[in-house]
Design brief:
The protein has helices at 27-39, 57-60, 72-75, 90-104, 199-208, 233-240, 245-269, 271-286, 292-296, 314-320, 405-426, 456-459, 480-486; strands spanning 5-8, 14-23, 45-48, 110-111, 114-122, 127-134, 140-150, 174-176, 191-195, 214-219, 225-228, 308-311, 324-328, 331-335, 338-341, 346-348, 351-354, 367-370, 373-374, 382-383, 387-388, 394-396, 431-433, 497-499. It has 500 residues and is of the alpha/beta class. Strands 1, 2, 3, 4, 5, 6, 7, 18, 19 and 22 form a 10-stranded mixed sheet that branches. The protein starts with a strand and ends with a strand.
Length: 500
């Protein structure tokens, strides 16, 4: 590790200074550290992580069957070949990340159990001062950094989103949110109701079905799913030919991106055709007597919400064999023995799992200020979905909804390292996005257009998030196939970045 500069604070305590401070040791933070170390080896840095270990979402989520909802050839890093099945378990992903940390020598850069409570920018000093609390000792620490690289993720890890229903306090069993799964939950032989229809519910149900007396997915409305074999024919063929894993990783990665790009375009251009293509394999598994349209044909168009991959159709196999069932209805109230539905039907349950999503955070729920003035990110405009007007020396990684999150980790890693080198060439230490004269008064839009993408966790929080403009570089494109061409060639001297 490059030696850090030590500065005394006003209480004469040592304050460590870093060129770059990375917030979070999840998949974004680990990937960003790789790019920084490889492309800007002269920059000293540290990673502050609030949890006791690395992994981010894979450290938080420990419910039965926890797995990826997109393929690991694109969710994995471009610099670290994935050699397993396309859809991977939590343990397999944690092992992959551990190998990256060990192989890259990143362990010494990570400080665990460091929860950042505030970040203050000083225009006079030209650096950020961060206050962090160690969760294991209660000790309060201060760090300074020239640049903040925010890799904290986009949802609140401390607790999931659970709506309030009448009668919840009368239910005699246990109510559990997957995000805070208890170690002592015994569901063997129990009647379980899972409220929700997204990727978490679709993961839990096949993992638990064999052990439960019965498990029911209760949904207000359906969700789209991809049914895919949990193998990759191209990868298997190339391995038989003894092609190096690095080549296999890149070839398969590009093939998957090509396929998903075409699927995404099909959904935009011919949504009803895409709808039928998604429903066809479900109809084939469940048979003509099952009401697929009621239970698995959403009101929204394909890709208006994220589509989770169901490996080998395991969710639907459980429904087919009778160990699991799906009910599409609304909750009237909880009862002592289960749930009363608005249709008048009841669902008896010993355990109710609220797989009802999460709440977004805004840059880690950290109290930001600039020269003593509290910073409200909702009053800023985003620069390319990663930086914000009026906010110096700060970049956030916010991944893709319609492609693997990590694809943007790699793209933004390249971009920021190029920006840091450019600043060094200019002899400056501060960069801040600013509107040009021709940008002032442009139409402002939400962080993400709800007509384009509208999951509940996002629509609940749009008022808290930065806005985007009607032109580049003030757009949050949310399109890998566009950004993979735009970001590597983005003009750093077009007047939208002010240097000092």
């Amino acid at each position: 590790m490059t030696d850090t500069e030590v500065r005394p604070d006003r209480a004469d305590r040592a304050v460590e200074h870093f060129d770059v401070l990375i917030v979070g040791a999840g998949i974004s933070g680990i990937g960003s550290a790789h790019h920084l170390r490889e492309q800007c080896p002269d920059k000293n840095f540290v990673i502050l992580e609030s949890k006791p270990s690395f992994g981010g979402t894979w450290e938080t989520h420990r419910y039965p069957g926890t797995r990826s909802d997109s393929d690991l050839y694109t969710y994995g890093y471009r610099f670290k070949p994935w050699t397993g099945a396309p859809i991977a378990s939590r343990d397999e992903i944690v092992k992959y990340l551990a190998e990256v940390i060990e192989n890259e020598g990143l362990g010494e850069y990570i400080r665990y159990r460091h929860t950042i409570t505030s970040a203050q920018w000083s225009s006079e000093d030209k650096y950020w001062t961060l206050t962090a609390v160690r969760s294991d000792t209660g000790e309060q620490l201060k760090f300074t950094a020239t640049f903040l690289w925010m890799c904290q993720g986009y949802y609140r890890h401390s607790e999931g989103h659970t709506p309030t229903w009448e009668g919840m306090d009368h239910f005699a069993g246990r109510i559990v949110h997957p995000q805070t799964w208890p170690d002592d939950l015994d569901y063997v032989g129990k009647r379980v109701v899972v409220i929700g229809s997204g990727a978490t519910a679709a993961t839990l149900i096949p993992a638990m079905a064999a052990d439960c007396a019965h498990i029911t997915m209760l949904q207000r409305s359906p969700t789209f799913f991809f049914i895919r074999s949990n193998s990759n024919e191209v990868a298997d063929m190339l391995r038989e030919l003894e092609i190096p894993e690095e080549w296999i990783h890149e070839i398969v990665r590009q093939k998957i991106l090509l396929d998903f790009g075409q699927i995404t375009q099909l959904a935009l251009d011919y949504p009803e055709l895409a709808r039928e293509e998604l429903l066809k394999p479900i109809r084939e598994i469940l048979g003509e007597d099952f009401d697929v349209d009621r239970h698995f044909n959403p009101r929204y168009r394909p890709w208006q919400q994220r589509i989770a991959v169901i490996p080998d159709g395991d969710l639907f196999a459980g429904i087919k064999n009778g160990k699991a069932s799906v009910v599409t209805d609304e909750i009237d109230s909880f009862t002592e023995n289960g749930i009363l539905l608005k249709s008048g039907a009841t669902l008896e349950a010993d355990i109710i799992i609220t797989a009802t999503g999460f709440d977004m955070n805004v840059l880690g729920d950290i109290d930001f200020s600039i020269d003593g003035v509290p910073l409200d990110f909702a009053n800023t405009i985003t620069y390319r979905g990663m930086m914000f007007t009026g906010v110096p020396n700060l970049l956030e990684i916010f991944g893709y909804f319609r492609a693997s999150w990590t694809l943007r980790v790699d793209l933004i890693g390249d971009f920021l390292c190029r920006l840091l080198k450019h600043m060094q060439e200019l002899g400056v230490s501060v960069v801040v996005p600013v509107l040009r004269d021709e940008d002032v008064g442009m139409e402002l839009r939400p962080w993400v257009d709800p007509e384009d993408f509208n999951p509940g966790y996002l629509t609940r929080s749009l008022q808290l998030l930065p806005r985007q403009g009607d032109r580049q570089p003030w757009r949050h494109a949310q399109n890998y196939w566009v950004e993979k061409e735009d970001l590597p060639t983005a003009d750093l001297d077009d007047g939208t970045l002010r240097y000092d």
